[in-house]
Specification:
Blueprint lengths: L1 H28 L4 E5 L6 H17 L2 E5 L4 H9 L5 E2 L5 H5 L5 H4 L19 E9 L14 E3 L6 H12 L8 E3 L3 H9 L5 E6 L4 H7 L4 E3 L5 H7 L4 E5 L16 E7 L1
Parallel strand pairs: 1-2, 1-3, 5-6, 5-7
Antiparallel strand pairs: 4-7, 4-8, 4-10, 9-10
């Protein structure tokens, strides 16, 4: 009798096993009710890419997607580690470059508690190009001329700052030889307009709104970066890049007036 019962139970189990396994697989691989993307500043390329990704995910997966405005790479990484974001944009090498580099204000903030350090790279989406921007009538002609001036390097924890620091090292300019300004894109535009800023180093996608809002006006120009091969040898997260003539402005004054060598990193 017992054997018959066991056999019946085994048959039932075998019949329902595929269904059980299928449901278990669906439960384990199910998408969350909401996907959160750690993006960046609205005037940067990260944010516009995040909005495009949001539309694609909502259309194809039917899942609600939330885009968070952040200061950039390190905040995005912290949000991923704390479990407050599911996807995030990150500039390779940013955490390494900025390790130990904090203002007193940043040091006073409590560190975010990490839930996980298992962060996976999914894809490189586009190139973030380094632009050294100065007013069109500025006395700053070459990178070495940045000494003694007030320079926007990017917000704390941003990919802009992570690119600005090695660029200054390449030009053999220390932070003590300039007045560093850790500004958002909006603040950079405002302070340029108010003549409170001498130059800005922006590391963004070539279609970033902030670039076109500045360079389309004809009021600003981009500096050439010298000895690029030496820079890319020392800073391996940089690749050689060339901004084509007239990329931002074709009317006089053309920006840039000729193909302009610079560097870029991934995003």
């Amino acid at each position: 009798m017992k054997r018959s019962v066991i056999k019946v139970l085994l048959v039932i189990l075998l019949i329902f096993l595929p269904v059980i396994l299928h449901q278990a697989y669906r439960w384990l691989t199910a998408l969350p009710d909401q996907i959160t993307i750690a993006a960046g500043h609205p005037e940067g390329r990260y944010y516009s890419m995040a909005l495009q990704l949001k539309d694609l995910l909502e259309q194809q997966l039917g899942t609600k997607v939330k885009v968070i405005q952040t200061k950039g790479s390190l905040e995005n990484l912290a949000l991923l580690r704390s479990g407050k974001a599911d996807l995030g944009f990150y500039q390779p090498g940013a955490e390494y470059v900025l390790q130990g580099f904090q203002t007193e204000q940043e040091k006073s903030k409590p560190p975010q508690q990490a839930v996980t350090d298992r962060i996976c790279f999914i894809a490189n989406l586009y190139s973030q190009v380094v632009h050294v921007i100065v007013p069109v009538n500025s006395e700053i002609i070459k990178l070495a001329d940045l000494k003694g001036h007030r320079i926007a390097l990017g917000e704390q924890g941003s990919g802009d700052l992570a690119a600005s620091l090695p660029l200054l090292r390449h030009a053999q300019i220390s932070l003590e030889e300039i007045t560093p300004a850790y500004l958002s894109y909006e603040e950079i535009e405002e302070q340029f307009d108010q003549n409170q800023l001498d130059a800005a180093i922006l590391t963004v996608g070539i279609e970033a709104p902030v670039l076109h809002e500045l360079l389309d006006t004809g009021k600003y120009r981009i500096l050439e970066i010298p000895y690029i091969e030496a820079l890319t040898r020392k800073e391996t997260h940089f690749d050689e890049y060339e901004i084509p003539a007239g990329m931002f402005r074709r009317a006089d004054p053309v920006v840039p007036p000729q193909d302009l060598p610079t560097v870029a990193c991934g995003a």
